[in-house]
């Protein structure tokens, strides 16, 4: 009897050890989804978690000396920003073809005084710039402008200055900014993950005069330089650049490049300063020497908007903020924050976290896109995942609670479909999923957007996403029936 009790006790003890230990093993060696679930199990079992528990929502962390607030929400798939001297924000919304205006907070309640659509019917508007009482807009295939009155309101008709830019393939976004020389600079990403482009304007930064004349290619070999800006202290141009995919979790790095006229920055033949495994032996004769990055970001962090700060002091006197959109193709997701880059006297660059905690152990709160700074020193950050604009300003360091769920009707998106219609559309959508090889990117690579779709999209908003997908997802040119079928298939797969 005694021996039996000892055996039973030993067996129970072994089971307890396995229950406690297994989450550690899965966290270290399991798939991303299994590791996340295991963190939750471990927290419940022994009180351990790699993220502190939080009350009343999930907190964003901001740099010391600053506080962060949600300035505007429910804005949808917003991307780039421009701010007027009076504090009005213009916001691009490519998926709906619109530009929004968020009126400055003059009444002091911490929110825009008004919100309105000021331009509509555009072709995937992305980059925005202000110059001499005009708002310039970078559509995916054109550059246009519209006049502003003395109060910063739209007046007159929108005019396209230059048309015919290629916008097919993966990186269709165009970003614009005026340089210290008065030229309007324009970035245009590559059509692909890695390839030799047939269109000489892709994977470049170009420039033109303010009236659209004199268009020229300024620099080449920039795979996808979504953001760029000039140092206020010596007017050097720096641009972020997204490295290629499918070479592992930690290679190649994303880049910050100092861009000079006529410079070549490697793509597709180099990744940073290393030869590409696919194209490194195909370097054409007469190609300029590859210019290495000024700074490397971790692989797949997807740096987008960059803004040099002009109204800060102390450690931020010679610094820039960069929005890291976050990875879609790492086994362990990374990025999802805003970092500060600090230029040292010896020319080196130090990177620190500025606004973080968007990525939690079991949830994703947002994906930063762009940064602007008001003359008052207030900093505004756009987020295309949550549809929010954040305001960062001087004050006691804060941790702002953020709702983890999207702000839309979260009832069953397929509630209006009969069982027969669901089965028909699921079959059709599954065929489309296979035809376009969606699984190559969306399965087994840590891609988060296919998780929790019903928390972030309605049936209509997901169908709209297929019209203007977020890069690097290519535009598939689906008709309405195909978009509906793919939508039903994806929602049904989650169930």
In short:
19% of the residues lie in helices and 30% in strands.
Description:
This protein has 495 residues and is α+β, with helices and mostly antiparallel strands. The protein folds into three domains: 2-46; 58-402, Neuraminidase (6 Propeller), CATH 2.120.10; 419-494. It has seven helices and 28 strands. It has helices at residues 2-29, 32-46, 419-435, 439-442, 453-456, 459-467, 480-494, and strands at residues 58-62, 66-72, 81-83, 89-93, 98-102, 115-119, 127-131, 134-138, 142-148, 154-163, 174-178, 184-188, 204-208, 216-220, 228-230, 237-241, 254-259, 270-271, 274-275, 295-297, 303-308, 319-324, 337-343, 349-356, 368-373, 379-383, 388-394, 399-402. The strands form seven sheets. The chain has a six-stranded antiparallel beta sheet, with no helix packed on it. Strands 2-27-26-25 form a four-stranded antiparallel beta sheet, with no helix packed on it. It has a four-stranded antiparallel beta sheet with strand order 3-4-5-6, with no helix packed on it. A hairpin with a 5-residue loop joins strand 25 (368-373) and strand 26. Helix 1 crosses helix 2. Residues 4-9, 11-57 and 404-408 have low confidence and may be disordered.
Task: List key phrases describing it.
495 residues, 19% helix, alpha+beta, 4-stranded antiparallel β-sheet, 7 helices
CATH topology of the largest domain: Neuraminidase
Q: Strand order, main sheet: write it out.
A: 21-22-23-24-1-28
What's the rounded overall pLDDT mean? 84
The Rg value, from CA coordinates, equals 24 Å
CATH architecture of the largest domain: 6 Propeller
How many separate domains make up the residues?
Answer: 3
Biggest pleated sheet: 6 strands, antiparallel
Proportion in β-strands: 25-35%
Annotated CATH homologous superfamily of the largest domain: TolB, C-terminal domain
N-to-C span: 50 Å
Helix content: 10-25%
- Quick one: overall form? globular
Separate helix tally: 7
Unreliable stretches covering 5 or more consecutive residues: 4-9, 11-57, 404-408
Q: How many β strands by DSSP?
A: 28
* CATH C-level category of the largest domain: Mainly Beta
Q: Which class of secondary structure composition applies to the elements? A: alpha+beta
């Amino acid at each position: 009897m005694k021996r039996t009790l000892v055996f039973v006790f030993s067996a129970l003890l072994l089971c307890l050890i396995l229950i406690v230990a297994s989450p550690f093993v899965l966290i270290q060696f399991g798939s991303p989804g299994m590791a996340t679930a295991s963190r939750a199990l471990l927290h419940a079992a022994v009180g351990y978690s790699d993220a502190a528990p939080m009350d009343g929502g999930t907190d964003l962390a901001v740099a010391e000396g600053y506080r962060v607030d949600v300035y505007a929400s429910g804005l949808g798939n917003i991307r780039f920003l421009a701010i007027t001297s009076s504090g009005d924000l213009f916001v691009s919304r490519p998926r709906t073809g619109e530009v929004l205006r968020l009126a400055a907070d003059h009444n002091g309640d911490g929110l825009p005084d008004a919100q309105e659509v000021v331009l509509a019917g555009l072709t995937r508007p992305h980059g925005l710039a202000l110059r001499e009482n005009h708002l310039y807009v970078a559509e995916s295939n054109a550059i246009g402008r519209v006049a502003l009155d003395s109060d910063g309101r739209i007046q007159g008709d929108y005019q396209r200055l230059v048309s015919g830019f290629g916008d097919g393939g993966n990186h269709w976004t165009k970003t614009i900014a005026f340089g210290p020389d008065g030229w309007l600079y324009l970035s245009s990403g590559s059509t692909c993950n890695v390839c030799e482009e047939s269109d000489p304007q892709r994977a470049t930064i170009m420039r033109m005069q303010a009236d659209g004349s004199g268009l020229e290619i300024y620099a080449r070999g920039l795979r996808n330089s979504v953001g760029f800006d000039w140092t206020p202290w010596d007017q050097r141009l720096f641009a972020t650049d997204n490295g290629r995919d499918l070479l592992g979790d930690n290679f190649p790095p994303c880049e910050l490049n100092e861009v000079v006229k006529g410079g070549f920055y490697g793509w597709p033949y180099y990744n940073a300063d290393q030869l590409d495994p696919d194209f490194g032996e195909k370097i054409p004769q007469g190609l300029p020497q590859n210019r290495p990055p000024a700074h490397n970001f971790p692989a797949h962090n997807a740096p987008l908007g960059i803004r040099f700060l002009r109204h800060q002091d102390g450690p931020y006197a010679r610094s820039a903020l960069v929005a890291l959109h976050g990875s879609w193709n790492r086994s362990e997701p990374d990025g999802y924050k805003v970092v500060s880059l600090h230029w040292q006297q010896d020319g080196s660059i130090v990177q620190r976290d500025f606004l973080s905690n968007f990525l939690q152990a079991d949830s994703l709160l947002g994906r930063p896109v762009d940064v602007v700074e008001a003359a008052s020193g207030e900093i505004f950050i756009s987020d295309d995942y949550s549809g929010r604009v954040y305001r960062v300003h001087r004050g006691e360091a804060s941790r702002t609670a953020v709702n983890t769920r999207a702000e839309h009707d979260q009832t069953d998106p397929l509630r209006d479909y009969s069982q027969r219609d669901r089965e028909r559309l699921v079959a059709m959508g599954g065929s489309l999923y296979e035809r376009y090889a969606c699984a190559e990117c969306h399965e087994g690579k840590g891609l988060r957007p296919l998780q929790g779709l019903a928390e972030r999209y309605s049936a209509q908003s997901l169908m709209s996403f297929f019209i203007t997908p977020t890069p690097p997802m290519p535009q598939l040119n689906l008709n309405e029936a195909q978009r509906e079928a793919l939508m039903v298939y994806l929602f049904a797969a989650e169930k």
